[in-house]
Amino acid sequence: MKFTRLVPLLLVLFLIALCLTVLQGYNLVALPAAVPLAARWLFLLALGVYAARRRSLTFWIVVSMFVGAELGHDFPTQAQNLKVLSDVFLRLVKTIIAPLVFATLVVGIAGHANLKQVGRMGIKALIYFEVVTTFALFIGLAAINLSKAGVGVNNVGMDTEKLEPVKQTTADIILHIFPENIAKSIAEGQVLQVVVFAIIFAIGLAMVHARHRRPMLELAESLSEVMFKFTNVVMFFAPIGVGGAMAYTVGKMGFAPLQNAFYLLLTLYAALVVFILLVLLPIALLARIPIKRFVQAIAEPVSIAFATTSSEAALPRAMEAMESIGVPRRIVAFVMPTGYSFNLDGTTLYLSLAAVFVAQAAGIELSFGQQLVMVFTLMLTSKGVAGVPRASLVILLATVASFNLPAWPVFIILGIDAIMDMARTAVNVTGNCLATAVVARWEGEFVDNYVAPPLTDLAESDSELAHSAH
User: Fold this and answer.
1) What secondary structure letter does DSSP report for 167?
2) Could you read off the pLDDT of 266-308 as tens digits, one per residue?
3) How far is it, in rounded angstroms, from Cα 231 to Cα 228?
4) Claim: this prediction has a pTM higher than 0.85
5) Is the sign of the CA dihedral 345, 349, 352, 358 positive or negative?
6) Are residues 178 and 66 part of one domain?
7) How far is CA 18 from CA 207, 210, 248, 456, in A?
8) 419 assigned to some structural domain
9) Which of 104, 117, 247, 430 could join 82 in a cystine, given CB atoms 3.0 to 4.6 angstroms apart?
């Protein structure tokens, strides 16, 4: 059977299994219990065959979610023993965060020591990034507090030892930001303290002579690259960890959490639409960006980002698209890559939603001040890790643990993370493209009536440059 022909077969099997399960559940048809059970497992078997041929980690995570849910439904007592698989995965993820955040922040700050030469453009870009991501943060907070997608999850028996929030005064919160011993901060998973140490370290590194800065910067770059690969290795265990977590959750609590996850998905998509209409569109109008040309230019890179859930896959086409509407190459070359570290609008909005969802699912009431501290921590720790697979999962798990929140709601989110990742990645790319155009306009270098040269002219000019170089 051809690879593509499995898709309609999967849909048919899924509908058959669903219909039989519903008919049995409502006693509409007298069916032996083994019939819908066999239909569901046949669908899962076909889904596994399809996943084996695709060889996609994201799809394997989806398959493991279905299998885990089925195990939790059919064998609830035995499924609860699979929690050890999710605990192993959680421990591995927690080992990533401190070295990864430290290395990426040091490279991101000290590696841009040439901001002095870039001058006003660098300052304007950073101001723009932080203002827009703050808007995204507040829209995310408003959306999740209005929808209350995490409220109502029955959390009886789920990590009850972690369900008491930490009582802290304002002085305690301020002191908690600053590390007294970086090794202790890493061991205790105090993410914000690691961030503060990394920022100060990077500033100090940027101030020293190039002869002293280069070896340490190369070490940080090497560490970040190794941690990227470390993350890739750990993520191969993600399907097993997610399957174990889903089996445990469904075995303990039934299917109610999946309904809350669906509400969270709707909340995210609605919040992203609001962010585009109320933040990005007015910014584009104020900066006098030609909306029609801009939308036409970014359609392809945004589609690539949505389909692949990878901002990096869309980066080359996004840079070309911005040049094609009149943004000078030197501005594109600086603002676009910097935005990938500091202007993750979709990810920031998602993290604010997800963090509060975890608290709501755990039954913990967080004041607005506590929510702000947590999501600002998430916003800081997400800087510089745009290229890490499942970076949002890594950041979210580490941060909720440091705020004494349970981890099990994060695995509920992970079940629909692939669908949410598509939308937030597309918004990340859209926001970075707009940032490039806005900074160009702010610098007075946006060419309104720019006409991109044909591809043949570009090829001829490249050959002429190569010939003159010889």
Assistant:
1) P
2) 999 999 999 999 999 999 999 898 999 999 888 888 877 776 6
3) 5
4) no
5) negative
6) no
7) 63, 64, 22, 55
8) yes
9) 247
